[in-house]
From TrEMBL:
Lineage: Archaea, Methanobacteriati, Methanobacteriota, Stenosarchaea group, Halobacteria
Organism of this sequence: Natrinema halophilum
Superkingdom field: Archaea
Transmembrane segments: 20-40, 52-71, 91-121, 172-195, 224-242, 262-279, 291-309, 315-336, 348-367, 379-397
GO-annotated molecular function: transmembrane transporter activity
Keywords from the named record: Membrane, Transmembrane, Transmembrane helix, Transport
Membrane topology, as annotated: Multi-pass membrane protein
Family: Belongs to the major facilitator superfamily.
Main subcellular location of this protein, as a coarse class: membrane
Name this polypeptide is given: MFS transporter
A cellular component annotation (GO) from this entry: endomembrane system
Subcellular location: Endomembrane system
Residue ranges of every copy of the Major facilitator superfamily (MFS) profile domain listed in the record: 21-402
């Protein structure tokens, strides 16, 4: 009963004082954007056939998507500090909608790759603005509110990939991506209508000045910020490598149908719907170090088991173990949001996420190269090793003085 009462109190805090509709709109938009991005892995087998792509090149396509999703985060953060989160998030949704239209009409690999990059870029305008506006709305509940928002992202990643897989198998692959266009248009309109009108900040004129750049760099050189950024990078390279080619691995190595692989892939994110709010709440209560340890142990075991197990239900269990790593983002991003000074929060988060996500974007193409050379299974053992190193690094983080 105490747990139920605690959950009810948390829900009241998040929904009360007129903040609930704002959070629901932001979180829903994030769910649609991430759902769009995670359609790509389930379409890879179809794209390989249509455009004659090797596993390495298919991995590079996913890398282009992640790279686009990284490069826009710094300008997105700067613009969020200077102008309006409402404007930046709305623009991002419409950019993704237009880019998808170009992808489904693509007749050559060049157009496919370029427009995929724009899908990532449009999506990258959203996350920093999302974090900064949530930190303003929930100054004392950033972990829980961000956890809920990220859980909605996982809900989108749970719902949309299997729908896309079914449409691609039953109709054509373009239908598996194109059905997201009207949803993204609705997201853009909703953000513009529901979120409050904001005015540019008075200090925004020197956003990119040398003095401000030195100030931002000085703030970000704090030891714990740099350390947590490196942990975030290790998480991102593992997550992107795993998700980018996991449906292809299930089809080509484990012998599953494309539809079944899409369903199992969606179960990975379905677990994240539960994990991320719990991880965000754990950050609020027990701190970064303990919360990260809780969510990273299971993935090491799950990734290590993948090469040696067979059968749908055993793979479901291993996938569920791996899925707890989804809570890592809610923890590290909540820590960074709390640690960075408010006047440079968007810019600082943009710098950190751009660096970590850009470096992490090499994961899928490297992983695809291993798979092309017959080392698909060994790639997952390598990812397990990376997460084991991440756990050892996490042990160096200081415990909070109080919970």
């Amino acid at each position: 009963m105490e747990i139920i009462s605690s959950i009810g109190a948390e829900v009241d805090e998040l929904w009360g004082e007129g903040r609930g509709p704002l959070l629901a709109t932001i979180a829903s938009g994030w769910g649609v954007l991430l759902g769009t991005r995670m359609i790509y892995p389930v379409l890879i087998p179809h794209l390989r056939t249509s455009f004659d792509l090797s596993l390495t090149v298919a991995g590079f396509l996913v890398t282009i998507l992640w790279l686009g999703a990284a490069l826009g985060q710094l300008p997105g953060g700067v613009l969020a500090d200077r102008y309006s989160e409402r404007l930046i998030m709305t623009v991002g949704a419409f950019v993704v909608a237009v880019a998808i239209g170009c992808v489904v009409a693509a007749s050559s690999p060049i157009v496919l790759f370029v427009m995929t990059g724009f899908i990532g870029f449009g999506q990258s305008l959203y996350p920093i603005a999302r974090i900064t506006i949530i930190s303003d709305i929930y100054p004392d509940r950033i972990g829980s509110a961000l956890g809920v928002t990220m859980a909605m992202g996982d809900l989108g990643q749970t719902i949309f990939p299997p729908i896309a897989a079914a449409l691609a198998a039953g109709v054509f692959w373009q239908a598996g991506l194109g059905f997201m266009i009207p949803l993204l248009v609705i997201v853009g309109i909703s953000l513009w209508v529901v979120l409050p009108v904001q005015t540019p900040t008075e200090s925004g004129g020197d956003t990119l000045s040398p003095e401000r750049a030195r100030y931002v760099i000085g703030e970000l050189r704090q030891s714990n910020l740099a350390f947590v950024t490196f942990i975030l990078f290790l998480y991102i390279i593992t997550w992107q490598s795993f998700t980018g080619l996991y449906p292809t691995y299930l089809v080509e190595v484990k012998g599953m149908s494309s539809a079944t692989a899409g369903l199992l892939f969606s179960s990975f994110f379905a677990c994240g719907v539960l994990v991320k709010p719990l991880a965000g709440a754990a950050y609020d209560r027990i701190g970064t170090r303990s919360a990260l340890l809780l969510v990273l142990i299971g993935p090491v075991i799950g990734l290590g088991l993948l090469p040696v197990i067979e059968g749908f239900w055993l793979l479901v269990g291993a996938t569920a173990l791996v899925s707890t790593m989804l809570g890592s983002g809610a923890i590290t991003q909540s820590f960074l949001s709390d640690a960075i000074a408010e006047d440079i929060q968007g810019t600082g988060l943009g710098v950190i996420r751009t660096i970590s996500a850009t470096c992490g974007a090499v994961g899928p193409v490297f992983f695809g190269g291993l798979a092309d050379r017959g080392y698909f299974d060994e790639g997952y053992l390598l990812l397990a090793g990376i997460l084991a190193v991440t756990i050892l690094l996490t042990l160096r983080l200081p415990q909070p003085s109080s919970s």
